[in-house]
Specification:
about 25% strand; 10 strands; 4-stranded antiparallel β-sheet; 8 helices; alpha+beta
Length: about 240
């Protein structure tokens, strides 16, 4: 995970989105719907994909009532919508590589909206696989660091659980896993009593693109914000390494 600070990204994202918590909960609700549909029902004890999404929901401070309502809605106890998972790729302003994960109930509308955001920023959408090869798919778990945590002990527990890498930050620990090991590692650390600031599958750029110019950074950030604000967009990954 050298050169990549997932926690720095999370802190920046939380600062921007605390006032938009409802939108975050809506996006997670869609992920719950997909997890129920594809993971084998609404019982988290037998649906590992649903357990992962619930962990993500809790890391985002989503109330238990909201989580329960989303599961009931997905299992047919309320109105339900079928969402389609789509991956868009392309280059944004200043040649930044971008991957967008969406869940949509209208593929044509979503594609037109994403294409418009790219075009308005002077970028272009690419074909499937055009930039995905530049990213590694990894599970990333961010553990809140407190005075009670011994760094060596947390590292050993994470590695023993099956983690690939461990990075200690001033205010958090970053645990990196192979995608197929993410659920097992997360559950082991959860049972050990650790609190997560984030727990999800990430796409980490192999070679971050350093952006030094403040104006360029502003235009890239504005582009990323427009993508994030789209109701169908679940996650946006990019290779820009922005100035602080």
């Amino acid at each position: 995970m050298s050169g990549h600070s997932k926690w720095a990204n999370i802190k920046n994202k939380k600062e921007k989105t605390d006032s938009q918590r409802g939108k975050i909960f809506t996006k997670i609700g869609r992920e719950i719907a997909i997890a129920v549909k594809e993971g084998g029902g609404g019982d988290p004890t037998t649906n590992s994909k649903l357990r992962d999404v619930i962990a993500k929901a809790k890391a985002n401070n989503m109330p238990n009532d909201n989580i329960s309502r989303s599961i009931k809605k997905a299992t047919g106890e309320g109105s339900s919508v079928n969402y389609e998972e789509i991956l868009y790729e392309g280059y944004g302003p200043h040649n930044v590589a971008v991957i967008i994960e969406v869940l949509t109930d209208n593929r044509n509308r979503c594609a037109a909206e994403i294409r418009h955001i790219f075009s308005k920023a002077g970028g272009s959408m690419g074909a499937s696989g055009s930039v995905a090869w530049m990213f590694d798919k990894k599970g990333v778990i961010v553990i809140e660091r407190t005075a009670l945590h011994d760094e060596d002990e947390v590292m050993l527990e994470a590695l023993d659980a099956g983690a690939e890498d461990f990075v200690a930050q001033d205010d958090a620990f970053e645990v990196c896993t192979a995608p197929e090991d993410f659920s097992a590692v997360r559950e082991t650390l959860e049972k050990a009593g650790y609190s997560f600031l984030s727990a999800e599958i990430d796409r980490i750029p192999q070679n971050p693109l350093e952006i030094r110019d403040a104006g360029a950074a502003d235009s890239i950030q504005a582009f990323l914000d427009r993508l994030e604000d789209n109701d169908d967009v679940q996650n946006v990954f990019h290779n820009a390494e922005m100035p602080e």
